[in-house]
């Protein structure tokens, strides 16, 4: 297990488990959080030793969102500093940097499963929308908290949540700052499954991630790429892209031969990991 200021990370059975570890402050997202999360996820992605990522938390709440210290510690971009055009440009760059801290989950080569207990508030909603699948305890809830702070959510909530929930409901939550209870989130498909407690949820999610890790990592990655592409494009574009993807990836691959051979031999197939991502010299 490796540890940082905000996270514990453990990889077992090809599953990387990233756990928020600051329950005494409701796992708020400090400046360290925004720096550590993408570094952890990108390392998992690049090394390719894991085939699925699970993100869970500790304590009463999954996360209370952005820590107010990020706005007041003097390290961020000040909207009133310097010439107005340059100041606004710097502020935009800071917003985009924060977005990338979560987009790494969406862009990772392996699926991301998120296990949510208690409050999933503000920035935590942004983060949850980047996961491939979300699971929750029955006492959990989601809040677009930014409106309650006289802000517009800007780290990814709206571009992604509008693909996950009916737009009318997204608007209601965004304008009012009301809670979306776990049961309603499940009924609407935002959450895959509900559990009575966190232990049950985490057991299920880790088992599912381990099952995914037994599949061909090349096929799983291809599925994630095409699903994300379909989300962001028209049906016609998606059909064209999957045809192009298959033309490049369908040889058939060694994984397909292994799958056929394992079926004939009545055993579990064994697939190679994806190749590590090489860093620029």
Describe this structure in words.
With 281 residues, this protein is of the alpha/beta class. The chain folds into 2 domains: 2-213, 2-enoyl-CoA Hydratase, Chain A, domain 1; 217-265, Lyase 2-enoyl-coa Hydratase, Chain  A, domain 2 (Orthogonal Bundle). Helix content is 47%, strand content 15%. It contains 11 helices and 10 strands. It has helices spanning 31-47, 69-72, 84-107, 123-128, 157-161, 167-176, 182-187, 198-213, 217-232, 235-249, 254-265, and strands spanning 2-3, 7-12, 15-20, 52-56, 112-116, 119-121, 133-137, 141-143, 179-181, 193-195. It has a 7-stranded mixed beta sheet with strand order 1-2-3-4-5-7-10, sandwiched between helices. A hairpin with a 3-residue loop joins strand 1 and strand 2. The longest helix has 24 residues, at 84-107. It is globular, with a radius of gyration of 20 Å. The two termini are 29 Å apart. The model has no long low-confidence stretch (mean pLDDT 94).
Estimated radius of gyration: 20 Å
Summed up, the domain count is 2
CATH class of the largest domain: Alpha Beta
Count of DSSP H/I helices: 11
- Provide the residue-averaged pLDDT: 94
Q: Which fold name fills CATH's third level, the topology of the largest domain? A: 2-enoyl-CoA Hydratase, Chain A, domain 1
CATH architecture of the largest domain: Alpha-Beta Complex
| SS strand fraction | 5-15%
Shape: globular
Structural class: alpha/beta
- The CATH superfamily label of the largest domain reads 2-enoyl-CoA Hydratase, Chain A, domain 1
N-to-C order of helices and strands: EEEHEHHEEHEEHHEHEHHHH
